[in-house]
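lol ok so funny story. i was supposed to be doing the assay writeup but got distracted and ended up predicting the structure for this chain instead. priorities right. anyway since i did it might as well share w the group, maybe its usefull for someone
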Amino acid sequence: MADTRTLDHGTTPLRYARGWHCLGLASTFSDGKPHAINGFGTKLVVWQDSKGELNVLDGYCRHMGGDLTQGEVKGDNIACPFHDWRWGGDGKCKEIPYARRVPLRARTQRYETAVVNGQLLIWNDPEGSAADRDILPPELPDVLTDKYTPWSWHTKEINGSHCRELIDNVADMAHFYYVHFAFPTSFRNIFEGHTATQFMESTGRPDKTTGGYSDANSTLKSVATYYGPSYMINWLTVDYKGFVTEVILINCHIPTGPDSFTLQYGISVQKPEGLDDKTVDYIAERYTESFGEGFLQDVHIWENKVAVQNPLLCEEDGPVYQLRRWYEQFYTDVADIKPEMTDRFEFEVDTTKANEYWHAEVAENLAKRAADDPETVSH
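and the output, tada:
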């Protein structure tokens, strides 16, 4: 029928986003061995040289395609297992042991690096520009000190979804109720320059006893900012029956293919005063489990949905199209970036109608549960 809404699946971008991408905790790569990371449609090799610097190159030798991640660190260089061509962190071939000289054009793809908050970041740009260090994510001064627990770091491979699915969550108020089992009582966005921020307050749903943010005894205040296309810092204040905990969540990803990416997240908890280490570790573990469950709830949706370029929205859905315009800047040549991609944009979702319906639905769910089994109802 002519008036039937159709889904536009669009086409997957042919390039990968310009900006800083996190490969994981820097300490992971500091053992003097080569490490393999899938990213940007290829394999990367990561190693630490004798000066302690972390280096990242394309993982395949420009000689005859040997896998450098299966090679060996020799001095400051990574040696190919195929013919022992040795590559430096600057991308130049430094030595070919069996040859008189190194070819002048013996150069491979190098990725500039930075270590921020104990994590290794690399710069990717299809135009080949130098890394923009002015837009690195901010350092968190108290993290990696005794004031916070060490990072609890986790990795999940996502297949069948473009990483924009992850970004869409920044503007998606309603999914917190349906997917993460929380009442979002306040929800606001600000997009400006290379940052996109979500401000949210929520309480747990009493009709859901497990999963996500479902604890009815908890209230959550969240400020989550993307610094570029793939690295988000989420400041969380959790109030559980009057006991307040400050949590920092890192949510980052690196695209591995046109419709796949590696999701990584890390959690660090501010140590409450007066508690012993065992109790603090227990609290950190519980929050790691809770927010980890939240990511897995999203993953289940991503792996079973289709891409939609023309989503049909209601006013409570938030500024999805404006967010996507902001995100588009990272897939556009710098000279072609338009003001509407970077100009400041603010939007607050009115959650009144949604919460009226949701609270009524939850009350009905609890009433049904009480009728079926009165002993299961929480008082």
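The radius of gyration is 23 Å. The chain has two domains: 19-135, 152-364.
back to the writeup now i swear
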